[in-house]
Every structure is written in structure tokens, then in C-alpha cells.
Write a sequence for this structure.
């Protein structure tokens, strides 16, 4: 069993793995695709239980080490030694953990605002609290998921077309997949205690309107002085809210990192 992966080999340049956040899907990158293909070949992965991906019943499938193994299998199948990776929100915790465990296979990494990646361990809840929340979500099903504040139905700065696609994909979400992500992935997503050990060039595209993330961005800069930060006017989903500027930042990073 493998998460859904979408290859865009009509792009130019190195491969770029794109991993979305919780309750999102491949739609997260739809407005970026054509721009990104000018300088890379996007590879879009959907999280377990999201979009077109299956929902494993075993919680161990959702572990960050298993995701890292899958990422690296995809890279090997593409026939390349190294690639770029980019994570959004929850997905950033996965790609950043992958860059820490597989630095020899990552040319450089990009990430956007991610509370789960840069918050201290347990700051967003203990494993026991995550487990209890997961049980509630699984019992509550789709209505409970639709009440989560980061469900796309609450988005206010997306175009109508983007929001419609995200809502259509959110309707595909598996309550068990979401619950297992809370149980099996979320407790280990934080990288802030190890961020200083990052060996690959790293770019944060920071949506500065998200006040809650600002101190975490500052902590990231302190932990990793070589961190490159591009600040853009927008919020949590900065790649959608400022798509052209996001693409330009990623394009410049890829070009300069490869030199």
C-alpha cells in the first residue's frame, strides 16, 4: 500500500516533493503547479486518509519513519540520487524529519508556516491528549472533522475555484485516517530540538499574518542561523494566498542551491 502520488514530469529541472497539511490534498498546490514547472518537476503526495490516498488501519503506517521510508522509495523510483522537498503545515513536519534522517538524498528543503514542526515537543498536546482527541474524531466522523478550525470550509482568502476543489477533496477524508494521523504522526512531528542539526539548505516561506507562528519562526532562525527566510504578506496557506511570490521564492532558492 502506498499513498497517492502525482508526478509532473513535464516540468524542467530537479524533482520537488510537495507534501500538504492536515485536511488538505493535492489541491493545496494547484495554483502553484504551472509556475513551479518552469524550474522543477513537482511530485505531489497526499497524506494517508486524505484525497485519493488509502487509509491503513495500522497506526504504525502513520509514523514519521514510515513516511520517510516511503518518501525515499519514491525518490529511488524516480532514478535520482537527490531531490528537493517542500512541506506545508503538518506536511512540513514530515519533510523536515525526512531531511534530518536522509540528508544525503535532499538537495534542499522548503517549508511554510508549521506549528507542528517548530513548536516544542508536547506543546500542542501530550501523546495521551492526542490519543483522546483522535478517539473523539474517529467517533465523531465527518461532522467532527468539519468542525476543526483548519477545515477548508473556514478558509477566507482562497479563490472560489481553489476552495471548491479543497472542499471536494475534504469530503474524501477518512475519519480513521485523520485520527491515526493524530495518534501516529503528530506526537513526533516537532523538529525544533534537532533543527540545529539540519545539514541541508533550508528555506522558510513565512506568511507573516499568522501571529501564532511568528515566535516559532524566530525560534527557527535562532536554532538554525543559516535558515533563509522569505516573508510574504499572507497567512497560514501562504503558497495559495501569495502564489506568484511563493513560486518566485522557491525558484530562486532552487536556482541558488544548485550552483
Amino acid at each position: 500500500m502506498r499513498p497517492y502520488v502525482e508526478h509532473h514530469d513535464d516540468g524542467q529541472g530537479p524533482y520537488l516533493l510537495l507534501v500538504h497539511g492536515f485536511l488538505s490534498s493535492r489541491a493545496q498546490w494547484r495554483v502553484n503547479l504551472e509556475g513551479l514547472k518552469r524550474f522543477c518537476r513537482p511530485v505531489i503526495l497526499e497524506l494517508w486518509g486524505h484525497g485519493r490516498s488509502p487509509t491503513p488501519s495500522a497506526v504504525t503506517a502513520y509514523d514519521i519513519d514510515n513516511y520517510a521510508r516511503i518518501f525515499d522509495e519514491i525518490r529511488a523510483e524516480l532514478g535520482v540520487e537527490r531531490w528537493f522537498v517542500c512541506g506545508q503545515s503538518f506536511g512540513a513536519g514530515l519533510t523536515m524529519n525526512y531531511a534530518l534522517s536522509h540528508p544525503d538524498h535532499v538537495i534542499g528543503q522548503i517549508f511554510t508556516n508549521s506549528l507542528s514542526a517548530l513548536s516544542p515537543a508536547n506543546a500542542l498536546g501530550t501523546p495521551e491528549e492526542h490519543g483522546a482527541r483522535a478517539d473523539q474524531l474517529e467517533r465523531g466522523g465527518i461532522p467532527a472533522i468539519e468542525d476543526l478550525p483548519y477545515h477548508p470550509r473556514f478558509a477566507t482568502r482562497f479563490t472560489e475555484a481553489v476552495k471548491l476543489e479543497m472542499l471536494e477533496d475534504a469530503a474524501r477524508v477518512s475519519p480513521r485516517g485523520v485520527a491515526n494521523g493524530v495518534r501516529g504522526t503528530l506526537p513526533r512531528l516537532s523538529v525544533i530540538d534537532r533543527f540545529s542539526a539540519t545539514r541541508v539548505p533550508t528555506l522558510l516561506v513565512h506568511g507573516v499574518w499568522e501571529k501564532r507562528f511568528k515566535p516559532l519562526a524566530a525560534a527557527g532562525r535562532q536554532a538554525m542561523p543559516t535558515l533563509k527566510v522569505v516573508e510574504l504578506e499572507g497567512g497560514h496557506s501562504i503558497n495559495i494566498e501569495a502564489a506568484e511570490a511563493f513560486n518566485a521564492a522557491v525558484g530562486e532558492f532552487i536556482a541558488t542551491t544548485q550552483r
Summary: The two ends are 37 Å apart (CA to CA). The chain has ten helices and seven strands. The longest helix spans residues 127-146.
